[in-house]
Amino acid sequence: MGARELAELILERQPCVALTGAGVSTESGIPDFRSPTGIWARFDPLEYGSIEAFRADPRKVWSFYKPRVAMLAEAEPNQAHLTLAELEQLGVLEAVVTQNIDLLHERAGSREVVEVHGSIRSSTCPGCGERVALADVLELLREADAPACPDCGEILKPDVVFFGELLPPSAIDRAFELARRARLLLVVGSALEVHPVAGLPLETIAAGGDLAIVNRGPTALNDRAALRIDGSAGEVLAGVAEALRGEQPQQPEHAR
Q: Exactly one of 105, 117, 195, 254 is catalytic; which is it?
């Protein structure tokens, strides 16, 4: 089974919602976190990615985040991001729920994006609550190893979900709402290992919907998927979009 079968499933099972993970952004040159060669294989997540670590030594945590924030800010959307945005424009994808923090779905043109793990869009001062936009954080990082709040001087915290923090309530509630409504949940680039987000497909299935998976390697829910494709997210989704374009009614020339 391949891209054409997935395109047919998307048309048959509406509404369709996408759930994306690190495997979407690796094709933009962004390393994943959990694979054997991922970031957490080289850095202890509790030492560099937990809220306790940040509170104990925010400068140490920023020594890890500084080069990564700069890299994410410079990364470009790849074919997978662009195609998901196109599927939304074609009216066959309701929303993207993403575990990624890199803003690439938004930059690719997707309008309905739910960021369940936060994003690099901003950083917030733990002291006074001042929120600082990414562009200003990057400017602060050009002058220092850790960005200080322009109002009170305390070290800013990236607005990403650290280990030990709760997910943003509005985002995770919206994600579960979308999953329950979806007749098809399309998982792209996620091994479905990080909870509670990994439970979203089960919400779709329990509500009578179907699950489709596009991922390199196995996932935790392979046996529950109506369709599974092991391959490049960008290549598979490009094939899906090509098939769907052929299914869309063409406007008369004078209406264009």
A: 117
